[in-house]
Description:
The chain is built from 1 helix and 11 strands. The chain has one helix spanning 2-20; strands spanning 32-38, 44-47, 50-53, 60-68, 71-82, 88-95, 98-105, 113-123, 129-135, 145-151, 157-163.
Amino acid sequence: MKKGKILKLILFIVIVIFSFCECKTSGSSSPTGKLISNSDCLKSTSNGNNLTTSSNDPAYEIISYKYDGNVLKITHQNAAFNCCPGKIGGKTIIESKKILINEKESKSECCCTCLYRLNYEITELIPDNYTLIIFSNYIPNKNHTLICNIDLINNKQGVFKFSRNSYPWI
């Protein structure tokens, strides 16, 4: 009789312990993403009618990606924000076959706009075809989005260029 009660008690304790544990099995993690860094305002210089920067052609907003070992690195080059943005943030959501990034600034204290480089990292992402959607208040179109189709099965890296013909890109 005592043996049965002791076994039930041990079983109860084991169940309670495992119910409070976060157990992970290999390969079952959900993908997570975050903004890992952003540049200061990219320095630009005027050269006649052409505006150039030290890193890339500012007449384009550029999305580049590189995929290696279930980690996707995304760079948003020439992203426009206020010259005094406070903290730049990029909330990342991965749902179904979509990667959604919502870029924001905490302040907009200056009367100017500047170009920045934002670096994101998404971990535990399985190779597949994804639609990358970046939302920003400064993208010069009606719905403020950049949309790219990324094929991580056949193309481990890629670049998308979006021509810009307005301030601050030109």
